[in-house]
Amino acid sequence: MVIEHLPPTRSSMDSSGRESHSILWTYEVPTEIRLMTDKRSVELYLKLLESGSEKKRDIRLVVVGKKGAGKTSLIKRLFGEDNTDVTSTNGIEIHKIKCKAMSDDGIWNKLDGNYEETETHARLLKEYEGKLQDKGTTEEPVQSQFAIKDNTPATSFDESKTSGTVYQQPKIMTPLVTTESQVEPPVTSQKPNQSLEQAKKDIETMLQSNVDLHDKEEYATLLLWDFAGDEEFYHTHQTFLSPDAIYLVVTKLNEAGDKEAQDLFQLWMDSIHCYSRLEEDGHRFDVNEKTSDDLDPPIVIVGTWKDALISDVQEIDDACSESILKYTENMSEDELRHIRQEYFISNTEDDPSVFQQIRENILNLARKMKTWNKDYPLKFIQLETRLQEKKKELPIISFQEIQNIASDTPKPLNDEELRFFLEFHHEIRALVYFKDLPSYIILDTQWLSDAFRYIVTAKKFRAISIKNRKKWDELYSRGKLHSEVLEDIFKKKRITCLQHTRTIF
């Protein structure tokens, strides 16, 4: 990621009617913010950018399809892992991956919780480094003064070689002009000494991370969501769908004539199409933007079980194409505009190069998306860092607590900025926050997915509670979920934050 401080360049349209900077700025704002109902959202985001920003390159990759289609096996092959012993996904599994933003090497590096935190620390540490060097407060490189550890390898998914991964970040560019009037200070009760002490603590924590300040490579973050194919989960999956994702719709080539397989394929295509931006396509923010027949979000169809396809057709690829035609024959013209590519694969027999090609093409698709390379406030990164630490303790946080944290960062957020942060991160599915239910925020979306999984598969827990038998009966006869039943389920699964279940559900 490239971290840079951007001077304000906004202006209104001039008297001649020429294109104004404000329109160009608006186009640089993430889609989720431009489409918010609050018309002040864009202006607020631009104001936050004035205190420092980075270029954000995030990819959301969602894998969906019928149970048994080979989704988990496909993901394992994309990760370069052995898929001889595969267990079907139960609910939703979320993986975070790092890759080079401008390279076509097809290498994905999986991040665990610690490395996710390291990535965020690096983004902030680069800012401090740039400020020190810009002010000339040190005659030697900042790296030589910092004891930066680099001794823990990550998993590399380049199947042609084995390599340790150094977590590297790009350089910083500082603003040509900086004035105090550019940034409106947030309303906060934080004292200067408290702010300084917290900044010192944050830097010390960051310096204990595996951060390499030497590398100038630009990186992208890929968040992969593996959705279970069980029909019971379909309605809970809707919570996690996003208009700014790339979707892999996985289907079995040898079941193209099966009515159930066709219906489930169509269900996913319809669900994804609900997030299309037909309205936005009619309103271009940049007059120079080229129009396209493609419709977002992009869909890649992956036909699996190629090795099990029986056909009289001489060429196997022709038989695969015929299968996909059967799946898509009832789709509308608008739905077909989502489809970017089709792959016909065997998860058991295909060479690793097939899956490397898929990885490369996914990154190429990401570079063309409107969310790629958007400006992102550094103030948000500071709060993200603190929330990552909090998420290790509990998956849920009260608004009051997050309010206290937001006012205790080196660059505090006021209440308006905090609510804006929460709304935006809800839209990109980084957390769960509802304005009409603001008391609690779910920091861990994997935890929420697990909670949904326990609820929709609750029948297996019925025998654990005799006294709540009638309430369990109502769940299956009327679909009414009593809080007592919910507590029965979560106690059995030893789920954390049981005390918040009545508030959340």
Automatic annotation (TrEMBL):
<feature type="domain" description="Roc">
    <location>
        <begin position="52"/>
        <end position="369"/>
    </location>
</feature>
<dbReference type="Pfam" id="PF08477">
    <property type="entry name" value="Roc"/>
</dbReference>
<dbReference type="GO" id="GO:0046872">
    <property type="term" value="F:metal ion binding"/>
</dbReference>
<feature type="binding site">
    <location>
        <begin position="65"/>
        <end position="72"/>
    </location>
    <ligand>
        <name>GTP</name>
    </ligand>
</feature>
<dbReference type="GO" id="GO:0016301">
    <property type="term" value="F:kinase activity"/>
</dbReference>
<protein>
    <recommendedName>
        <fullName>Roc domain-containing protein</fullName>
    </recommendedName>
</protein>
<dbReference type="InterPro" id="IPR020859">
    <property type="entry name" value="ROC"/>
</dbReference>
<dbReference type="GO" id="GO:0003924">
    <property type="term" value="F:GTPase activity"/>
</dbReference>
<dbReference type="GO" id="GO:0005524">
    <property type="term" value="F:ATP binding"/>
</dbReference>
<keyword id="KW-0342">GTP-binding</keyword>
<dbReference type="InterPro" id="IPR006689">
    <property type="entry name" value="Small_GTPase_ARF/SAR"/>
</dbReference>
<dbReference type="InterPro" id="IPR027417">
    <property type="entry name" value="P-loop_NTPase"/>
</dbReference>
<feature type="binding site">
    <location>
        <position position="72"/>
    </location>
    <ligand>
        <name>Mg(2+)</name>
    </ligand>
</feature>
<dbReference type="InterPro" id="IPR036388">
    <property type="entry name" value="WH-like_DNA-bd_sf"/>
</dbReference>
<keyword id="KW-0460">Magnesium</keyword>
<dbReference type="GO" id="GO:0005525">
    <property type="term" value="F:GTP binding"/>
</dbReference>
<dbReference type="Pfam" id="PF00025">
    <property type="entry name" value="Arf"/>
</dbReference>
<keyword id="KW-0479">Metal-binding</keyword>
<keyword id="KW-0547">Nucleotide-binding</keyword>
<feature type="binding site">
    <location>
        <position position="89"/>
    </location>
    <ligand>
        <name>Mg(2+)</name>
    </ligand>
</feature>
<keyword id="KW-0677">Repeat</keyword>
